[in-house]
Amino acid sequence: MSTLSVQSVFQRHREPVYQALRSAIDAIETQASTAHSELQAFYGQMKYHLGWVDEHFHPAIANTGKYLRPTLLLLASEAVGAGENDDALLRRALPVAAAIELTHSFTLIHDDIEDGDEERRHRPTLWKLWGVPQAVNTGDGLFSLARLTLWKALDEGVSSSVVARLGMLYDRTCLAITEGQHLDLSFEEHLDIPTQTYLQVIERKTAALISCSAEMGAILATTDQESIQSLSQFGRALGLAFQVRDDMLGVWATEEELGKTPAGDIYRRKKSLPIIHALAHANFADQHRLYEIYRQKAELTNEQVEQVLAILDATGTKEFCNSFLTQQCNAALDALANIATKDRPHSQRALADLTLLVRFVNQA
Amino acid sequence: MSTLSVQSVFQRHREPVYQALRSAIDAIETQASTAHSELQAFYGQMKYHLGWVDEHFHPAIANTGKYLRPTLLLLASEAVGAGENDDALLRRALPVAAAIELTHSFTLIHDDIEDGDEERRHRPTLWKLWGVPQAVNTGDGLFSLARLTLWKALDEGVSSSVVARLGMLYDRTCLAITEGQHLDLSFEEHLDIPTQTYLQVIERKTAALISCSAEMGAILATTDQESIQSLSQFGRALGLAFQVRDDMLGVWATEEELGKTPAGDIYRRKKSLPIIHALAHANFADQHRLYEIYRQKAELTNEQVEQVLAILDATGTKEFCNSFLTQQCNAALDALANIATKDRPHSQRALADLTLLVRFVNQA
C-alpha cells in the first residue's frame, strides 16, 4: 500500500470540495460586506483559518488539510449510490460535504482557544492574531455558516425529509463533539483515567464526526437502512483507528515518516492513548516516574523522553495500541462488507477507495 | 398601561416554556450521564446558566429571565393560527420556542466571555466559575442542543418542509447574530461610529433573533406569506425598540424604576445609542470632553457622570432616542395591522398581547 495511492483518493475529490467550500462562503461574504465593509474581516478570519488567505486577507496558499471528512462522505455516497447520474449524486452530496468540513474547521478554532494552542499548520491561530473574543465569535459564525450550507442540498433536489434526517444526525453529532471536549477538558489535570474513558472521549471528539460523514453520504444516496447503518459503523471504527494511529505516530514515528522530531507528543506531554495505557499498566516505580515527569513544569530532557519510551516498552503499550488499531480497522472492513454496493464502476471504485483508507490507517 | 398587565402576558406562557426547556435538556442529560457521569457537570453548567441550579448543581431558584423570545413566538403563532385545536398549536410551537430561548442563552454564555463580564443576573458567569475553555465549549454544546430541540417539532406533526424552512431561517439568524457581535467587538475601541452603524449592530445582535421568533411562530401556524412577512417586520421593529429602550433606561431611568443606581451605563462607560448619538452631535469642546472621560482608566466620578448627562441634554439625545423608539414602535404596530388574524378568541387575545408589548416598550 503506497501513500501515493491514498493521496490519489484524496486528490480526486479535492477540487469539487474546495469549490463547494468557496461557494458556501463567497456568496454570503459578498452580501454581508456590501451591507457593512467591516464584515470582510469576519469572513476573512474564516478564510484565513481555512488556509485560503493570509492574515491581511490577501490570497495565500497554505495547508488546507486533506479534506478527510468530506471525501469520506462523497465516497460513502458513491459506494451505495444507485443507477442515477453520477454528477447528480455528487451535486447533491457536495453541500453536505462542505457543511461537514466547515464544522470540523469550526471545532478547531474553538479547540485552539480551549487548549491555548498558538500555532496550527505552522501559522498563528485565530485567537493569537485577533484575540479570544473575536475568535470565539468567528468560530460561532463558522458553525452557523456550516449549518446554513447543509440546506443547499434542498436546491439540488434532496427532499426536505432527507435533509431533516441529515440535520438531526448533524446536531446530535455536534452535541457529542462538545461532550467529548468537556470530558477532555475535565481530565486535563488528570493522567490516571481509565483507557475506556479515553476511548469515550475520542469516540465523541473525533470518531463521531467521521461516522456522521459516512452516514450522511449513505443517507443521501440510498434508502437501504442496513447500508446506512453499516457506513455509520464503518466511520466510527475508522475514526477511532484514525485517532489512535495519530496518537501512535506522535510517539513512535521516525523522523523520516514525520518530517519533524519524533516522540513529539511526549515532549509536548500530550495525554494520548500510549501514556494513559502505560500509566494504567506500569509498575509502582514507573508510575511514580511518569507522574513526576508529566507534572514537572520544565521542558522534558531527551533522557526523560527515553525513560518514558522505555516504560511504554515495559508495559507493552505499543502492542496494545497496535492491536486496538487492527481491531478497529477489521471492524471497519467488516462494516464495509455489509454494504449493498451497486454493480457500477463508480460504486466499485468508491468501495475500493474506502478499503484503501482503512488499510492505510492500519499501517501505523 | 401597567407593568402588571405586561407581566401577565409573560406569565401566561411561562410554565409551558419552562417545561419545554426542561424536557429539551433532561432527556439528553440522563442519557449522556448514564454513559459518563462526568457529563452531569456539562449539562449542569447549562442548567446553572439557565437559572435552575446553583454552582454545585443543586436545585436553585434564580432569575431565569422573562422568556421574551419564546413568548413572542407563541403569541405570533396564536395570532395567525387557524381554526385548529389550540393545544395542538401550542404543542407544535413549544419545541421551536424552547430552541429559540436556548439559542439566546447560548449567545449570552459567549457574550460574557467576549465582554469579560463576571456577573449575570447577580450570579458569577460561567467562565468565571468554570474557566474560559469549559465555558466556550458549554456554549457550543448549548448551541447544538438548541438546534437539536428544533427537530422535536417533527414529532408534533410539523412537516419536514416547514421544519426545513424554520431551520434555514434559524441558521441565517444565528449567522447574523455573529456578524453583529463581530461589528460590536470591532468597534470596542472606537466611540466615533455613525449612529447608522450602531443600528446595524443591534439589528443583528438583538433584533434578528426577536424577528426570527415572531416569524417562526407565524410559519408554524399559517401559510399566508404576507402575515409571515409582517410578523417578521414586527419582530425586527420591536427588537430595535427593545434594545434602544434598554439603552435609554441605562442612562435616564430613575432609581425607583431600576432598583439600582441610575445612569449605570454611563458609570460602566457602555457604548450605547445615547453616547454614540451625543458624540456625533456634540460641539468640539464637548466631544473632546466625552472622549477624555470615556478613555480614562479610572472610575468615573459623580461629577463626570453629571457632565456626560449635560452633554446628552445639549445634543438633544434623549429626544432623538425617544423619536427613534416611537418610530420603531409605530412600525411594529403597522406590521401588526397587516396580519390576517383569525376571528378566534385566542387569536384576538394574542394580537392584543402583542400590541400591549409594543406599548410597554414605548414607555421608556
Reported by name, the CATH topology of chain A is Farnesyl Diphosphate Synthase
Tell how many strands the DSSP assignment of chain A holds.
2
Largest interface: A-B, 49 and 49 residues
Give the rounded overall mean pLDDT of chain A.
92
Report the CATH architecture of chain A: Orthogonal Bundle
CATH first level of chain A: Mainly Alpha
State the fourth-level CATH superfamily of chain A.
Answer: Farnesyl Diphosphate Synthase
Strand order of the largest sheet of chain A: 1-2
Domain module count of chain A:
1
Q: Largest beta sheet of chain A, briefly?
A: 2 strands, antiparallel
Total of helices of chain A? 16
H and E string of chain A: HHHHEEHHHHHHHHHHHH
- Point out poorly predicted stretches of chain A: none
Round the Cα radius of gyration of chain A to an integer and report it.
Answer: 21 Å
Query: What's the quaternary structure here?
Result: homodimer
The helical percent of chain A reads over 70%
Task: Work out the strand percent of chain A.
Answer: under 5%
GO molecular function (chains A, B): metal ion binding; prenyltransferase activity
Keywords (chains A, B): Magnesium, Metal-binding, Transferase
InterPro entries (chains A, B): Isoprenoid_synthase_dom_sf (IPR008949), Polyprenyl_synt (IPR000092), Polyprenyl_synt_CS (IPR033749)
Protein name (chains A, B): Polyprenyl synthetase
